[in-house]
Write a structure and sequence with these properties.
2 helices; single chain; alpha+beta; binds zinc ion
Length: 122
């Protein structure tokens, strides 16, 4: 069997450039069609590429726009740089804003408690 040499380049992930995995965003309302999820509301099964949808009958499930209103925004696992940045910065970037607030607030409260304890010593 002849296996292409670049088959071993990506050990786990499927080839990133597969038009069938591309998501499409509705320019009218921002709805994103994800082929991995399909649209249960329209009985479109998961794994249905956008190109396989019937352009005559498909409508945005949110705003009823036609296929022409949708824009190709690429596959879900496309490296965007933003997601890679999440791995830097001691993991703090992975915290939700709420968790960050708790972190900052508790450090702040700790500092106040420390200064108050200095005053109580006198
Ligand atoms: Zn829409």
């Amino acid at each position: 069997m002849a296996v292409s040499a670049d088959a071993q380049a990506a050990p786990v992930e499927p080839p990133p450039i597969d038009p069938a995995t591309h998501r499409f965003e509705c320019r009218s309302c921002g709805y994103v069609y994800d082929p991995e999820e399909g649209v249960r509301k329209l009985s479109i099964e998961a794994g249905t590429p956008f190109a396989a949808l019937d352009p005559a009958s498909f409508r945005c499930p949110v705003c009823r726009s036609k296929v022409g209103a949708f824009k190709d925004i690429g596959p879900r696992n496309k490296p965007s740089g933003f997601e890679e940045n999440l791995d830097f910065g001691l993991g703090v970037n992975r915290l939700t804003p709420g968790q960050k607030n708790v972190l900052i607030f508790s450090a702040f409260a700790l500092a106040i408690a420390f200064f108050l304890s200095l005053y109580s010593l006198r």
